[in-house]
Amino acid sequence: xxxxxxxxxxxxxxxxxxxxxxxxxxxxxxxxxxxxxxxxxxxxxxxxxxxxxxxxxxxxxxxxxxxxxxxxxxxxxxxxxxxxxxxxxxxxxxxxxxxxxxxxxxxxxxxxxxxxxxxxxxxxxxxxxxxxxxxxxxxxxxxxxxxxxxxxxxxxxxxxxxxxxxxxxxxxxxxxxxxxxxxxxxxxxxxxxxxxxxxxxxxxxxxxxxxxxxxxxxxxxxxxxxxxxxxxxxxxxxxxxxxxxxxxxxxxxxxxxxxxxxxxxxxxxxxxxxxxxxxxxxxxxxxxxxxxxxxxxxxxxxxxxxxxxxxxxxxxxxxxxxxxxxxxxxxxxxxxxxxxxxxxxxxxxxxxxxxxxxxxxxxxxxxxxxxxxxxxxxxxxxxxxxxxxxxxxxxxxxxxxxxxxxxxxxxxxxxxxxxxxxxxxxxxxxxxxxxxxxxxxxxxxxxxxxxxxxxxxxxxxxxxxxxxxxxxxxxxxxxxxxxxxxxxxxxxxxxxxxxxxxxxxxxxxxxxxxxxxxxxxxxxxxxxxxxxxxxxxxxxxxxxxxxxxxxxxxxxxxxxxxxxxxxxxxxxxxxxxxxxxxxxxxxxxxxxxxxxxxxxxxxxxxxxxxxxxxxxxxxxxxxxxxxxxxxxxxxxxxxxxxxxxxxxxxxxxxxxxxxxxxxxxxxxxxxxxxxxxxxxxxxxxxxxxxxxxxxxxxxxxxxxxxxxxxxxxxxxxxxxxxxxxxxxxxxxxxxxxxxxxxxxxxxxxxxxxxxxxxxxxxxxxxxxxxxxxxxxxxxxxxxxxxxxxxxxxxxxxxxxxxxxxxxxxxxxxxxxxxxxxxxxxxxxxxxxxxxxxxxxxxxxxxxxxxx
Length: 851
Hints:
This protein is an alpha/beta fold.
């Protein structure tokens, strides 16, 4: 029976406690330990049962307890301190307000399909979402004028449970938005804000909600509104659920709907950051809006819009990227393409590597790459992998000059460092460990923490992890209907004093969760050593349709059921942010075994490192940058293999070798008071070296300085004065691309002896034909470097050549000079590229002529 009327019932707080509602609705509480302690103080057990959701807590706590707290001077004093801290946080100037970039008219919109902010908002699945959440938190900390845009999922990502055989099953509980720290955006008349989004033959409406993340608002779109057809209400039902058609619908709502939602709220972003390709349709919508507002054609509007687009790719393999069949694109974008003034072929070509290939699908990453001024991978190695993946989009461009950079991911330190460790840091490092964690001088003070103090703190965290794991395992077994004896035995698993290895992540096959189990006999010898025991805690989810990933979980569960190993190996179900915190804060070793180079970045190891946990990982993703002998251990030396079976043999053996010869002996070598001095030296070395680098404070600073502000200034310049510069650039682009077929290099002369010495100058002159183009339209460059055995110039560098006369009929002449700084076989060639002051990169036009 459906209700004829609904009410949003608010918690009934005594007047003295009314500020609690304001504190609950700003997610700064999720990383402020003092605020968390305040809510936990109301009723500790209920805080846990409420899933760490302060709004749900306030709605369920008894009125008697609220009245009692309203009379408790200690509680009221605590609340006043927390409220004052929130007010100061929101009002005091931060980094951006004091930087040379500060501009009040700039807004940056950060689009992502998922946001992992706190476990009580289950609208995330894994690393991408956690990264997005940490990005917003650090943007808030540094005062960046950023807003988030995403989708509000009715079911979110699935909850995991295992059958008695260890096979993963999924539950999709509904999210109750009215008991979450989220509120609907309303129009002046009090009605919910609904945004119309064009779909074939109809409009789909999305309601807009807001989550306040410190200073940063996050706007989320929800199509589950009464005016929509049933199938359209289900668009935002599940994160990454459904088929390709569901996916394209979600991405239309995210990209096109997201831009329209911002416009309806009154926000016109100068920069839009596409965090992965899911939101790439926003680029088309921004172009359409500029065309409509300024009455300009697609090619002009494109110049303005693209200048303000940043694209971050997270996927190191093409199979992980959304590609839609042409027929599906026709169905959803046939009318939209006509609105853009594009033919079907021109429109589909925006999402194809080979625009004229009718059989090629429409790739969201390609669309983002074509319509973003700046693109980056999420680690230095991933940037390199991405340049290789997308090299075909820039034919003829040397590998190292493909315009895909890298910004290595980080973590929001306050969200992931345990309360015990944070207290220690506050005492010895001072507040700047979280206010400005990028300063190495702060982390150098780690040596001031007494060995006994940091070790006891770490042991306390391990004990809490073991208690949590036992309780969680017991609940799992009870829910599964296990035998009473097996349930009682859960209270005896794991040893609070044993070396504890943690493995927690998505169970995709390339992450090789079972690499540690490859040699069962050798593993048993390591785990069951009576003098030096070792134990392993696994956690993670496989995608609902990833049966090979589910099989890995089943294998671990079966091994853990062995009578001899059941106290040494545990699999914790339903991995989420809460489980992740216990793991990264309480284990001794964080294990990561991806198949290189398939790990784009990874951030769980960073979270572990800031808690004093030592990483043991393949040199992939972030660890290829973070590894030093003093920070942890590397499995292998960064080798790439063609034979995966052989790779698994070699790297599992290397892992066992590390455990037997280095890790276990170092952990159990204690001084006379029981302190592992060598282990502590490695803990401190890891914190000291990795702390100032792998945080989202550093990451967001880098995006702000190198990407956002540059993009904002360029977009503003192109969009000013009636789009004058954009019109000029579009006309120039048309002229250059149409005339480029006649550009060629006629002759090359080098004034050099046969065998020049190191440092000897070599003068090179060239004559070039430019057809209808002028010398100012092009850059003529020497491209010099060491010649590899395959005859190619490797890691070349470009040297500009200057005009040296010529009338254009017999060719324009250019001159340049080379000096080589080392001996060996060197070489050069000459190239011609387009040149214009408003180009982001000379490779943007895909026009390039080589000698």
